[in-house]
Predict the structure.
Amino acid sequence: MNLELTDEQAFFRDTARRFLESEVPLTTVRELYDTVDGFDRAWWGKAAELGFTSLFVPESIGGGSLSGNPTQDAVIVAEEMGRLVSPGPFLPVNVVAAGLAWHGTDAQRAEILPGLLSGEALAAWAHTEPGGHWRPEQLTTAATIEGDEVVLHGEKAYVEAVGVADHLLVTARSGDGVSQVLVPAGTPGMAIVRGRSIDMTRRFGRVTFSGARLPVSAIVGEPGNATAAIERQLQLALALQCAETVGGADRALEFTIEYGHDRIAFGRPIVSFQALKHRVADMTVQLEGSKAVSDDLAAAVDEQRDDAVVLASVAKAYVGEHCLDIIDDCVQITGGMGVTWEHDLHLYSRRALIDRATYGTPEEHKQRIVGRIAPTRDAVA
Amino acid sequence: MNLELTDEQAFFRDTARRFLESEVPLTTVRELYDTVDGFDRAWWGKAAELGFTSLFVPESIGGGSLSGNPTQDAVIVAEEMGRLVSPGPFLPVNVVAAGLAWHGTDAQRAEILPGLLSGEALAAWAHTEPGGHWRPEQLTTAATIEGDEVVLHGEKAYVEAVGVADHLLVTARSGDGVSQVLVPAGTPGMAIVRGRSIDMTRRFGRVTFSGARLPVSAIVGEPGNATAAIERQLQLALALQCAETVGGADRALEFTIEYGHDRIAFGRPIVSFQALKHRVADMTVQLEGSKAVSDDLAAAVDEQRDDAVVLASVAKAYVGEHCLDIIDDCVQITGGMGVTWEHDLHLYSRRALIDRATYGTPEEHKQRIVGRIAPTRDAVA
Amino acid sequence: MRLPEMGDHDTLESLDAFEARARAWIAATLPSLDDEPVESRELQRLLFDHGFAGIAFPKEYGGGGCTLQHQKVFFEAAAALCRQVPTTNHVSIGMLAPTILDHGSHEAKLRFLPPLLRGDEVWIQLLSEPRGGSDMAGAITSLKGDGDTYLLTGAKMWSTGAHLADYGLCLCRSDWDVPKHQGLSMIAVPLRNTVGVTIEHIRAADGTRASFCQEFFDDVRVPRSNLIGEENQGWAVAQALLVHERNAVANIGYGYLTGNARPASITPDLSVPDLVATASHRGIDGVLAGPLADAYIASVVGPLLSARISAGIRLGTHKGPWGSLSKLHGAVSAVETARTTLAVGGPDGVVWDGDEVRLDNAGTRWLGIRGNTLAGGSNEMQRNIITERLLGLPREPSSDRELPFSEVLRRATAR
Amino acid sequence: MRLPEMGDHDTLESLDAFEARARAWIAATLPSLDDEPVESRELQRLLFDHGFAGIAFPKEYGGGGCTLQHQKVFFEAAAALCRQVPTTNHVSIGMLAPTILDHGSHEAKLRFLPPLLRGDEVWIQLLSEPRGGSDMAGAITSLKGDGDTYLLTGAKMWSTGAHLADYGLCLCRSDWDVPKHQGLSMIAVPLRNTVGVTIEHIRAADGTRASFCQEFFDDVRVPRSNLIGEENQGWAVAQALLVHERNAVANIGYGYLTGNARPASITPDLSVPDLVATASHRGIDGVLAGPLADAYIASVVGPLLSARISAGIRLGTHKGPWGSLSKLHGAVSAVETARTTLAVGGPDGVVWDGDEVRLDNAGTRWLGIRGNTLAGGSNEMQRNIITERLLGLPREPSSDRELPFSEVLRRATAR
């Protein structure tokens, strides 16, 4: 939603939009509902060719951003994917790529990133835990170092694309600190339960670790010292998620207003009724506010600003709440047709629902905000 | 708001309304703003003659209710007082009278009630403590029994009419339980700080006890065993308060709609604009809901129903929140005139504000509701 | 509208006597809620055979010849005794039957009411059309006289249970050259095995086959005697139907058929205490205390509001379509509670194990929640009704009330 | 509207050079925020004397001859350096001056702008009338030609600071027999010691003398040269004024005069962290976590929204009165935050010690909070603007746009 795109960014956006419109239009999204993975691997390879996977990969490995601000580049794609409720593991692949680019060793990057870049390999970020716990201090999965091995015990849930991922980046507690560990799919001592979600195409799953053993070289960054890395990946995930949510709400409001112009009741187009107009005005304020705060979050992540922590929570709380409500209001404005399968609105509701619920709900982020700004004690939450 | 008044009740309501309209119209309320006590003692005597103070007083002492359901009789007056934001210590006098009628000894009743009945004496219920603590388990004021005396230490706040009260009914902790103690004005060891409030005529104050000594015969009911009594008085206070709040919102909405018919903008009466109409519809739902729940609370208090505890909190949370919002919406509908001194709406906002804040805010009652209905642990709050 | 309370007062059974008789019969006859569920049609026949179907309907049309209070007493007694009552009759008996009673000819009532009250013939309403439901008087389904029958052509939508119905009461346009409210008729259309009638299920946003249908009519022949109300007087009939619908949704009036004063729609799938427990387990009962309390408060205030309105209608203090208040309160609360349920569930409300689609989650319920605020008259229509018809505020300006309907159509499509 | 960016680009000082010069001057000249406050009029003269008053106004009218970006740079620098800037000029310089610049004749600009920008003459707007502010084009204050002067008769209301002002830009009716928008004129009325002008303070709901006034005009003589815009073209001038007003409220455009991107109205009296502390002390920070976080979120999103709209206006992606979004967001948030402040304060927000009236409490602030949602165009008007003028939705049906205004009046009073 950035108003000042560079020429490269504007071209990237237009290319992405045309690609998504032609390759995965809403009719295709509906077809993918009935598939296990929710997306087509060959299509993902094409997306990778367009640069969907390159933004956080260092140039030395063949990647690169458009503007030097990879998050601000990536949210362009996220927003377009939101506008068309597109399939594909865009968020986890890019969060894992960013995590390795920011904190991985040369060996880890060389091993993982080329595959992610080409789209041949996929990655999942196994972070959130059962019950929806996503704050680093809430983690209970343990990564214990035993000699030159690290041993994993615990459970991760709501892991996007875990069923198709070749690599898992797992967050875990190591003594007093937290670590991130790269775990290849199929590692003994790890069990995956594939799952579905309310979204048409986005699949999740659970991973249970019962003593999975990896070499210590599988740890990304310094053992026990990954709090800042996880926090930044979380901010990136929220920036991508907010951009996607905003894109969806923006598109839904667009076609709902169009519909409201065409639909006549009592001899007038329904968008001429003041109660409906005033609701649209409020939706417009919330949508524009959502764009403003999402943009600022993307910039804050790129610039590693101090306020990015609270801003990420502010953005998620605001966008997650209001954009779902905008789509919900679109359903009300559309009337009965809006609650049918044939109408596209439910595709948008579904995407907004899954985005609302993952990486912290708006309510959890509000709790976090209050805890952060409370002057007299450490945390309310 | 009871739809099925007895003939006596209907007559009582009409008499009360005429009395308030003629004796304390809004112009008088505005004059009383500049007085210290906020009401006229001679006028209160007339109100007492009409029965404003008799409903909870036993017939043996000269009192009596109209219908055998004194709370349902009393809320008729409270509602009328709300409609005209009337002055006078109606709530504290009746709560204290009820407390004595329900739990006092014959001697206590004989000593206190005749004065309250005639209007010559006034009473205050010194219950809430600084910080706004009103739940019996939160009390810190202590009533310690030493031989045949009871000694009071602590502080009460937001005590309505304390500046003019002849008798204070003080709630306090006694060991593991709570007691209520009758304290005459002027008792040594007790200091009163008179105060004002946002309301035009309702005055409050603080009372500090630093070793005030009373004979044990000043204790109402069994020492340390007043939890149920306090709870019921609290329910009565909330029933009176909710009825008053509803009466005010009802009247404000009435004259606001009248005004909206007369005020022309864009060649139309402003009440013809749909955005405004739909707001009025929502206000009407909330007002009717407020009436329904207030009525049921009054009945529940009379019937000593088990659900009265939670119902009191439900009523206060619903009425306190929505009726303030109804009046606030009336201000918005009225436009600029609604934020001037000359317009009467602020009298209604003031009354709703003071009612909202005393005997527990809507938020505190919501906290209490959640604590009460939580199935797995005792209390959230 | 006919008020059953005005009936034969001297021969009317007292409420106390009725209650005693009803309780005894219920206790002896109706299966317990703990028993195997008995089909509604069968239960309805049981009621009918003992004079307890359509309690407030005249006896000559198969009813009980009593009043709405008797009806309320009966279903409250059944609820108090934890007995099964028919659950699928809100539409037929709560909405259609009283409409027929209000506006049908004596012959139509004799023909249609007894099998309806007996549960043998199921009725639905056919009001909304695919292009939208709020402007019902803008119906374009056409009814043309052809000898002693009519020909019906057009489409209706959002008809709950049309696939199971025997008759639909259909609002259609019989005169296109008069203003829109003056050219409508209401006719009873047989739906089973009728030439020219096609009924299709609508697929709901959650992917399931919805309980509502779309119906297509292609030159369907209907006898003139199936008219309910006079030709071109259909709008008044539709209005009566809407009042009964709102009452049925609010579970009041003729629609009081369950002994449960709470409209079914606001009963959350998870009870509020369970929501509190889940929130507490997830550590978010603090931040959600307000919304959780609001959900509980709505579940208390809703029934009290309905009861108040019900009493007001009985006492005459509430005149007009006050059921709209209950409908609106219930619909708004349902969405609020669904939103809170989403918040409480977090990811567990939208993600689950396995490769199969699952419907038992907060997210899926959210996809359908707007049914509450649209079906049976949208929130917006209720707000119009409340302000225009209860409070007397001015109507929305519209250009289509005086013009011939054909001209309204021409102008609207010319935009 | 004149875009200052379109000016003499070759002679324009670069932003960087301007910023360096401005910073040096500010650092050397303007008093620190820690110093004793200096009167706004004095500060304004200081700016004027050094070419920093009306930075985006042409030099011939006393301005700085630069652009809105320069103006923003200047006030951002002053804020960054923690210096005092004039605080009472939002109306005169942010709203009135640009309106005069847009629509005044060359002579009017030469006469009025320099003393205005210098702070010597304070201007206010005279738009709303006692019978209501939203339908501004329904003004009935009358302007009649009388030789080479006009006679002004009527009343205006809600004029902020009229008692301190030298001039009021007054919307009045100069022709009653044409449709309402076509018979209006805007004229500069001298307010000090003018025969026939009476100015009264309005008493606010909290009992205090409000900063806004009511003005009565009784055959006040005003020179014809005081017209801003042509006779009967006043509606366009009023529209321009409204745009500048919205911008000033949103602190954007010409109204960017403080270096604080947050509209003053959403700054709560208690900061949100203080509210959290109080709530925590009272044990209600759990149940209020949502509203407290919302207050904080609004304080973050508000400035970001203003900044985005400001950028959009500069880039041309946002055309039209987008300031309405900031205005609406700020107004809605102000009420929400005031409501939360009430909840946090509980009884301490509405009860206090002593027999005196006190104003420093949450309750008293609540009594005035609706000023935010009414003054400067009510929320309802902003919503109309957003949907009709930004989104192109159909206008409200009204019968008063085509009829002669005298006829509209006649019909309205006939009701």
Observations:
- The radius of gyration of chain A is 21 Å.
- The CA atoms of residues 179 and 223 of chain A lie 5 Å apart.
- The longest strand of chain A covers residues 204-215.
